[in-house]
Write a structure and sequence with these properties.
4 strands; globular; mainly alpha; 2% strand; 19 helices
């Protein structure tokens, strides 16, 4: 990347941040501008530019959750509906194909199960609110299928991949900058989210800290991915390392048990799959050094998990419903309601409008789509893991390794959140995983460790 392009990217990134900061005065200004740009791009049917703009502005759009165009309908829901509809139009017009289309069969069946579950709920609860919520939920679930289908046809070579990653790096400026400012009390007007003890979670302008944590993790992964895949010049590389450190800091300041597990699991997966044992030992040494010499890190983590630790020591007289930030009690209530339902509801779903209240994606799917839907979703995840491992054994590059990392992060987060209802999370995770599984030859990266399989690099690259 030359200095001219770097200056352009910095200028665009600065404009994005300034646009986002207008939320202090009024959310209508950035919302109106962003929505207008995206709609115009979609109207002229340049889906590549449209999707890139959507990825770039989604962190800002998520900060406008309080602004509702209609009761119960915010810009977040609109983008969650707009994306799969746009992909559907694109598919009907261009008829693109995937390199490994078998997984799409399970996706299609899962989509039809969601249609059936939504219809059953609408029939049982004949209100406009249940109809609207069911419709929005269906489109939110459709996002992971839409991006899995779209991304390999949208990005077919390394130049397009580089542009996509640059957009994600720019998109991360807003949450990272606002998170840093809030962590140093430079944005005191933002709401305070407390967790265990006196720990205060960084949330920025978002509804809760999960958005901040996701975007910091997305930017962290993108930054490391960009460094290892494209080997940028030294100045840009150092800048990205600093950016990565800032992302780690914000992820830490969200004080999330899932975040701790995801960072640890991601590091372990990378060390094992890339066979960088020395890096793993160095990382463990650094962590143990910080743990033993830095009081605030050990103190913060102990505060974060003290309930769970206390329960493991002695469960007598302990209220288990308070564990995992109260999620245990919520799960028990939904499971009791599900077990008392009739056989049809158990098979195809008790209520499709559970939404994020379940605080567990597998439980949400069980209650919303029944054991039939949950079983099919399990087949999708197992098949996805199989194809990701197959891609890794074939290519052994940074793309295949990071795809497995994202799969692991998605599973960990699904324990405490409803990830299939988080469009931005699905766009990034399932998009990168699909790129690894359905990659074009031109997307082959540098092999990290020797592979027994020979890759035909002379194969003609498919184009859209």
């Amino acid at each position: 990347m030359n200095s001219s392009n770097l200056l352009k990217l910095i200028g665009i990134g600065g404009a994005v941040v300034i646009l986002a900061l207008l939320n202090i005065e009024s959310p209508f200004i950035p919302v109106g501008i962003i929505a207008l740009i995206v709609i115009v791009v979609f109207v002229i049917r340049n889906i590549r530019i449209g999707i890139l703009i959507l990825f770039a502005t989604k962190p800002i759009i998520d900060a406008t959750y309080a602004f509702q165009i209609l009761p119960g309908l915010s810009l977040l829901q609109i983008t969650g509906v707009l994306f799969p509809l746009t992909v559907l139009i694109y598919a009907l017009q261009n008829r693109p194909v995937l390199h490994s289309p078998k997984l799409m069969i399970f996706f299609y069946f899962f989509l039809w199960i969601n249609v059936l579950s939504a219809l059953l709920t609408i029939v049982h609860v004949s209100t406009f609110g249940s109809f609207l919520f069911s419709l929005v939920t269906f489109f939110q679930v459709s996002n992971m299928i839409a991006v899995y289908f779209l991304m390999p046809n949208l990005i077919s070579n390394n130049d397009e991949l580089k542009k996509f990653l640059q957009v994600l790096l720019l998109a991360g400026l807003f949450p990272i900058i606002t998170g840093i400012l809030q962590s140093f009390n430079l944005l005191p007007e933002l709401k305070t989210l407390r967790t265990t003890g006196d720990l205060i979670r960084i949330s920025g302008w978002y509804y809760d800290s999960s958005n901040m944590r996701f975007y910091s993790f997305q930017t962290l992964v993108t930054s490391i991915f960009f460094i290892y895949h494209f080997r940028p010049a030294i100045i840009l590389r150092v800048s990205l390392y600093v950016y990565t450190a800032a992302c780690l800091f914000i992820t830490y300041k969200t004080y999330s048990k899932s975040a701790i597990g995801i960072i640890a699991a991601s590091f372990l997966i990378y060390v094992v799959l890339s066979k960088r044992i020395i890096l793993g030992l160095v990382g463990i040494f650094i962590f143990l050094t910080l743990w033993t010499t830095s009081d605030f890190i050990s103190r913060d983590i102990e505060k974060l998990v003290w309930k769970e630790v206390k329960y493991t020591e002695s469960s007598e007289g302990f209220n288990t419903n308070s564990l995992l930030s109260g999620r245990i009690g919520i799960w028990d209530n939904y499971l009791n309601e599900y077990t008392q339902s009739d056989i049809v509801d158990k098979a195809f779903g008790l209520s499709y409008v559970v939404g994020r209240n379940a605080h567990n994606d597998f439980l949400r799917i069980l209650v919303s789509n029944g054991f039939v839907g949950l079983g099919l979703y399990g087949v999708i995840l197992l098949s996805l893991l199989y194809y990701l491992l197959t891609s890794y054994l074939s290519h052994r590059d940074i793309l295949s390794i990071f795809s497995i990392i994202l799969f692991g992060a998605f599973i960990i987060d699904s324990v405490g959140l409803t990830m299939t209802l988080q469009p931005a999370y699905c766009w990034f995770s399932f998009g990168i995983m699909s790129l690894s599984i359905n990659r074009r030859t031109a997307l082959l990266g540098k092999t990290l460790i020797p592979s027994r399989m020979k890759l035909d690099l002379q194969t003609k690259t498919s184009t859209i």
